[in-house]
Amino acid sequence: MLVSYKWLKTLVPELTASAKELEEKMSTSGIEVEGVEIPGEGLSKLVVGEIISSEDIPETHLHITMVNVGSEINDGEPLQIVCGAPNVRVGMKSIVALVGARIADNYKIKKGKIRGVESLGMLCALDEIGIPESVNPMKHEDGIFEMPADAVIGDSVLPYLDMDDEIIELSITPNRADALSMRGAAHEVAAIYDKTVQFDSKTLTESAEKTADKIAVKVESEKVPTYKIRLIENVKIAPSPLWLQNTLRNAGIRPINNVVDVTNYVLLYFGQPLHSFDFDKFGSNEILVRQAKAGEKMKTLDDVERELSEEDIVITSNGRPIALGGVMGGLDSEITDGTTTVALEAALFDGTSIRKTSQKFALRSEASSRFEKGINEGTVREALDYAAAMIAELAGGQVLSGVVESNDYQPSLHKVSISLEKVNDALGTSLSKEEVFKIFEQLGFDTTEVNGNFECIIPSRRWDIAIEADLVEEVARIYGYDRLPNTLPAGDNIGELTPMQKFRREMRAKLEGSGLSEVIGYSLVSADKALEFVPQDFPTTSLMLPMTEDHQTLRVNMHSGLLDIIAYNQNRKHDDVAIYEIGNVFHPALEGESRPNEVENLSFAISGNIEEKTYSQNAVPVDFYYAKGIVEELLADYENVSFVAFSENPALHPGRTAMVQLDGESIGFVGQIHPSMAKKYGISETYVAGLDMDKLLAKKPDQVVFTDIPKIPAVSRDMALLVDEEKSHAEIVRVIKESRVKSLIKTELFDLYQGANLPDGKKSMGYRLTFQNREATMTDEEISNAMTKISRNLEEKLGIEIR
């Protein structure tokens, strides 16, 4: 919302604060101010000049003009200026940029010669002094801008164009849509500074002829609480007066004509969207407001034909849509230079319906944004009458008697009660009853005391206030957030981390101790990436209206995001990347729930080299066993952890991937990204792992109790095994553990051989077994018995030959 400081001063006459002071005060009182701008800032030496003669330069479109710029400039002598504008004429008053002037884009005007003719300045169009094309009523080729006939020669043009105004840009949140109007902003400023508002009014003079004799209104849609219309006859369409054009331009709205500009002016003033129709184009004397029919079509003011659906509200006449309710009017009924009778509409539309329609057609307008957020339902008739009187004043029409409406809708005013004790308890203040009464009075609330409580009748312009907490907030911001005392929360309970928060910190420390860096990926990914590491029929959740296609589906894994980060780094020559993320993935909703089930996950990805190449060693690339080692370190406190070969995920290498199991239950995986997947992302050989944090936390072992380091030395024995090729290391270790040798503390594979001198289908594996008795030194007999027990178990269960 762009607020004119000049206009605001007329609505709050007692206001003495500057625009810059307002910027700070409003920002600390609940409505953020983005900034304050002066439209004419940076412009200089732009004055009113009158063309007293004009002579064409032969065989060109140029004119040699003599321009009177007043007695204070050039010793009162006229300036010779060469100009090519088609609308130059004697007696015309225009914008003159003197030699040395600064115009748009900081361009400096210099004395020069054009076609050999000396030119001492420039006659300007609006775009040449910085008026944007989007709000400029003139095209550049139309020529220079004509100043009003009563403009004083030699004066600066900036006040005439209101370019010396200060424009305050408010960042309005949805809950404070009451400030999306000049009257709303004035109420806010008046409340902050304890001033009174002063709104102008217009006298509406009606003709004897009744509106009801010429038009009827019928509303069939439940999404239109009220619909009102007036008729103004014998209007003359023309450009609006300069003050009105200036007002609209400073608010970011392009002036069109004296009827349409009035509706936009009232939109800014009241926050009430209006629409004007050419009544003679209706083809009927009845307006029907209804829901559109499926497949029904209409052409809107932007000359685009749109296919409607049953969720759209349409204004119809003679069986055809003439406006898309609350969003945009129809091309067939627009105001043109030939319009003589204006049908002026004011209505209330359902905000949700308007939002859906405006988003569907990408028709975001000043009107639709206000209907979406809410408007003052108590001033619909007032805004309509004000606009009708203003059109009659500017376009010379006669307003027919009465308003034709679907109903005389009046909003119900909320009553909210609160005690002084609750206000002070919530804010930590010790305000008196008189102070709180004063604040409610500043806000314009009709307040009485009932049974020791403040009972506030909330005006219709503040539809955001409905409960006690809203009143507390109003007291706080008017009293001043900076004046509230600093107090500590009451209570004996000291906050602490949740079990999951503690667990996340433990895992983070282990990962960073392994050399990985934390990243935070997007929770929203493309629909394709969401299914890369899960079955293609895995249920996902997507947004109905995503900002981009790349961020439309809630992730069900974090690996795609990590691969994107690796690709980003490797594309910038950072080849060695080791990253992790701990966050939520989104699985299908649990039974009885409507929202996706958020599951805490841990994922990491490593690519490139573990060790860089130096003079003394070659580079050490990352491999499966390095990634597996990190997983083993993360799960070092757990028992019964196993890694099972896994080849069913097409995103992972079938020969270098393992399912991680805990107590026989799958808790994640570790493996290499499939080469085709790596090629798709444009990354080098990469290894990833993922673990379910919720399952890990549920099975987290009790705290490990420290035990003394054994004083008795350990003893190692080696054994060589002749094993079938299909037997895995994990199976052998499992059988060794099942031998239940209490003194066995470590099993380590130190040799693996396949090749010559071995029977077909066999491989040789060498294991080093470490024994230790914490109470006494083990004897040779004890060690031999242990080795025999393990050997027998291997022979019986796996058919292994001890070499």
Descriptive keywords:
803 residues; alpha+beta; Phenylalanyl-tRNA Synthetase, Chain B, domain 1; OB fold (Dihydrolipoamide Acetyltransferase, E2P); Phenylalanyl-tRNA Synthetase, Chain B, domain 3; 6 domains; 7-stranded mixed sheet; 19 helices; elongated; magnesium
Please describe the topology of this protein:
Layout: E1 2-4, H1 5-11, H2 19-27, E2 32-37, E3 44-56, E4 63-68, E5 79-83, E6 93-102, E7 112-114, E8 117-119, E9 122-124, E10 167-171, H3 182-193, E11 206-210, E12 216-219, E13 226-233, H4 242-250, H5 260-270, E14 274-278, E15 286-291, E16 297-299, E17 305-307, E18 313-317, E19 320-324, E20 328-329, E21 342-348, H6 351-361, H7 366-373, H8 380-395, E22 398-401, E23 404-405, E24 415-419, H9 420-427, H10 433-442, E25 446-450, E26 453-457, H11 468-479, H12 499-513, E27 517-518, E28 524-525, H13 527-530, E29 553-554, H14 559-570, E30 577-587, E31 597-607, E32 609-611, E33 620-621, H15 624-634, E34 641-645, E35 652-662, E36 665-673, H16 675-681, E37 686-692, H17 693-698, E38 715-724, H18 729-738, E39 744-753, E40 762-771, H19 780-798, E41 801-802
Helix pairs in contact: 4-5, 5-8, 6-7, 9-11, 18-19
Biggest sheet details: 7 strands, mixed
Evaluate the radius of gyration: 40 Å
Strand content: 25-35%
Q: What is the total tally of β strands?
A: 41
The CATH fourth-level homologous superfamily of the largest domain: Phenylalanyl-trna Synthetase, Chain B, domain 3
CATH topology name of the largest domain? Phenylalanyl-tRNA Synthetase, Chain B, domain 3
- Determine the number of helices (DSSP H or I, runs of at least 4 residues): 19
Integer count of domains? 6
The CATH architecture of the largest domain can be named as: 3-Layer(bba) Sandwich
Give the CA-CA distance, first to last residue: 87 Å
Q: How would the global form be characterised?
A: elongated
Overall SS class: alpha+beta
The strand order across the widest sheet is 27-30-31-37-36-35-34
- pLDDT under 50 segments (min length 5)? none
Overall mean confidence score, pLDDT: 93
> Share of helix among residues?
10-25%
CATH class of the largest domain: Alpha Beta
Subcellular location: Cytoplasm
Catalytic activity: tRNA(Phe) + L-phenylalanine + ATP = L-phenylalanyl-tRNA(Phe) + AMP + diphosphate + H(+)
EC number: 6.1.1.20
Family: Belongs to the phenylalanyl-tRNA synthetase beta subunit family. Type 1 subfamily.
